[in-house]
Amino acid sequence: MKSKVNDYKQFYFIGIGGIGMSALARYFKVLGKKVCGYDKTPTELTEALSSEGCTIHFEDSIKKIPKSFLNEKDTLVVYTPAIPEEHNELNFFKTNGFTVLKRSEALGLITRFSKSLCVAGTHGKTTTSAMLAHVLNESSLKCTAFLGGISSNFNSNVLINKNSEWTVIEADEFDRSFLHLSPFSSIITSLDPDHLDVYGDEKQFNEGFRQYAMKIDPSGWCISKEGVQLHTLAKFSTFSIDSQTADYSANDISYENGMMTFYVNSKKFCLGIPGIHNVLNALSCIALLEKIGLSYQEIKQGLASFKGVRRRFDIQIKTDQLVYIDDYAHHPEELRLLIDSIKMMFPDREVTGIFQPHLYSRTKDFGIEFSEQLSRFDELYLLPIYAAREKEIIGISSDWLLSKIDVKKKRVAEATEVLELMKNTTDGIVLTIGAGDIDKIVSPLRDILHENIDVQL
Length: 457
Description:
Rossmann fold, globular, alpha/beta, UDP-N-acetylmuramoyl-L-alanine:D-glutamate ligase
């Protein structure tokens, strides 16, 4: 392998349409490299990458790889762990002398020589890292950033500033990817067990985070949600809501004119997006940004102008009679925080949830916890489980999960059926929730609900 990743002239991505992979692809394209790749199906992301000059195909075939990318000396191959081991192109590159790296390995090498501000934890990583990047970008420090979602402020999942020493990175625990990073400082948002198909059990999950926390630079900071117990060599600071013991506590939280208002150590902050969980995300950013030298005024202005991330409490429609929000929540704790925020913002409104379970293993492992949260809806539609990288687990299905949920109006339905059933909805709160392909119904559902309101008016 060349001494630096950036020394390669061209980059081939297997799974280029993934949110993390596409960020890397965009990064190298901006640097003037040739970028090509494969993905299973066309998406908005692959269309965007193609329009930006990346060459993409959708058939796992060695013949589809451009000849210029068959030079192992000039081409670095990057793949996502979601790619199956029997993938033809991946095996071709592995057996023909190419340098082949996982996405996390490539990201770790890129950011090794910058001051990396990483955001780890089971929940809130994408919003928190986007928030951190936005505030830094609006400040005198600036930054480069690799995100797990599309920031609404800069309409991308990557931000590049060649003159800044700071890099913001979403540190993904899946497949222990975050262990390839070298954090100068890190936020750890939460430590609720997840990805047990990878880790096996909660003990091994916690061990992964213990190893990650020990990688934080001793001269940097570990900013952790109060109650998360992790040993680290870095300086340590905690955050929480309405706490007497956390180093940073958000108090007097209110929702006013679409913004969350709260106080931290008698200083007032306004956050440009709603949600109690987003106050927690902002609080962790305040703590870290203060530690690295940003002023109160810079942090305050950055948070107030933050527009959020697509598919994270993403308000599609907001009228007096009907509100439609799309969200990526796919873990019971994320559902709890989402529903808590909805109940606070709209206490007297009926809430309809459209939820797509993500992974058979996660549904099985947290069936009871999912049923507790989903039972808080007034009406519920469950889409079939999105398998992603997994094979079916016999006995685990959306019908199995539905049987555990205490909601009078509930049913399992295909996406097309849900769209048909929503043609009579003219009021209340509607939520689409999940990390699979439920995002495909967001645009048509928004159109249907808009039409319902227009007809009603």
